[in-house]
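In response to the reviewer comment on reproducibility (Comment 2.3), we provide here a single inverse folding case reported in full, input and output, so that an independent group could reproduce the run without further information from us. The structure tokens appear first.
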């Protein structure tokens, strides 16, 4: 297994144990690949739930640009929901897991097909 496969396994474990979700491995793999090289960078691979600038980046670059949502689609509520599901006290919110849950939240799996 390569480094990316190891990370995907770690993300699936996070989804199961921290979020109570069974991962769709095909979708999780595609979302992880979509994150690009950021998954290998310690800082870029995680999302800081307490950093508004970071959450704005998630909203603008992922939800609006990648998933094609508009600002009126309750994006802040969706991000808050994912943070609640992942656990506010959990410091390491992996970007790929965060994005995966947002894709599931908006039922936008078709973006990755």
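Designed residues, in position order:
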């Amino acid at each position: 297994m390569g480094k990316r496969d190891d990370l995907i396994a770690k993300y699936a474990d996070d989804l199961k144990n921290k979020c109570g979700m069974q991962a769709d491995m095909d979708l999780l793999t595609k979302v992880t690949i979509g994150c690009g090289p950021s998954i290998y960078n310690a800082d870029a691979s995680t999302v800081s739930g307490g950093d508004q600038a970071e959450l704005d980046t998630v909203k603008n670059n992922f939800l609006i640009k990648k998933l094609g949502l508009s600002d009126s689609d309750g994006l802040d509520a969706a991000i808050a929901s994912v943070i609640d599901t992942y656990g506010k006290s959990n410091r390491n919110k992996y970007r790929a897991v965060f994005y995966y849950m947002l894709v599931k939240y908006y039922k936008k799996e078709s973006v990755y097909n």
